[in-house]
Amino acid sequence: MTPAASLRVGLMGGAVLSLVLGLSGGFARFGLTPAPATAIEFHGALMICGFFGTLVSLERAVASGRSAAFAVPAAAILGVLSLLMDQPAFGASAFFLAGIGLTTLTAIAAFQLPTLFTTIMTLGAALWVVGSGLWLAGQSISDITYIWLCFLLLTIASERIELSRLMESSPGARVLLGGIVLVLLAALALGQPWNGSLLFSLAIAALAVWLFAHDIGRRTIRIAGLPRFSAACLLSGYGWLLVAAAVLALWPPDVSSAGHDAAVHTIALGFVLSMVFAHAPIILPAVARAPIHYTPALYLPAAMLQLAVVLRVVGDIADRPDVLPVSAWVTVASILIYALLLISTAWKKQPSR
Question: Model-level pTM?
């Protein structure tokens, strides 16, 4: 294994560590399993910045082709280790620096290729900086969770625009998308969804509808194999984004803690993780240089993930706290089975048909 490959594998290992810590912290909040106190306290930061932030940064570093770019995901891993050692100030600083590094990488890409997707990608990366900066300035993780989630939301939206270029949008549609993104940013600037949620929820709903209407997944759902699997995950993710918008409008976080929990996990699990399931068989071979292939068995963990989100939303909205641990177990099982299936395909010489 070359030094570059070893670095990529090591950084991915750090992302997995953050995922394990974040999930264990979530389990411990339900009293299901023991976990370090820091994993419980920093559950959100470990999942969003540590796991997803590292993966996004690693993908961008590989795409940039610059060795120095790998300092960005390395900074995110440093943030994870700092939180594990109960040093939140160092952790916030590391995530802040990682956000600046990612914003720089995306801004360079936007300068070299000034398109809609590179612009939105840069705006999304900047939200990681903003959220981490506010945390460093003393705000709580709950206060900035939606800013961090919008970092992931805009990053994923930009990637879908890039990957769906075969379905070219009209100039009017691109202007509409730009307006939706501006409304979303304005809502965050106004303190939403903690200070009223209508504008924020409308922006998320509009973004989900726009992405659904213009995503090539609406065509590839008719193609057997990996295209259909990815499309199924993508389209279900847009559906969950609409559910999140409805939850935010009907049960605003400032008046309903259950609404807050349902909205956060609908976005993070229903939307973001569905997108990860859709993209992993495509992106991992390029990032990890691993011979990963599609297998129809991937539908099992994907379906389990959808069930887990349903249970989470129902448990929150119906005031059934006994359902939430079940959702947590199903979520972890879906991730574990999905990972094991992908790893198992690396041992096969030919992709499954």
Answer: 0.92
Residue of 146, 122, 121, 132 whose CA lies nearest to 98: 132
HSE-CB of 210 using CA atoms within 13 angstroms: 24
197-245 pLDDT, tens digit each: 999 999 999 999 999 998 888 889 999 999 999 999 999 999 999 999 9
Interhelix angle 274-288/3-29, nearest 10 degrees: 160
Contacts of 122 (CB under 8 A, 6+ apart): 103, 106, 107, 109, 110
Report DSSP letters for 136-170, one per residue: HTT--HHHHHHHHHHHHHHHHHHHHHHHTTTSPPP
How does 3-37 read in b/e, with b if 16+ C-beta sit within 10 Å? Answer: eeeebbeebbebbebbbebbbbbbbbbeeeeebbe
Token pair listed for 309: 């989100």
Exposed/middle/buried for residue 296 (C-beta within 10 Å: 0-12, 13-18, 19+): middle
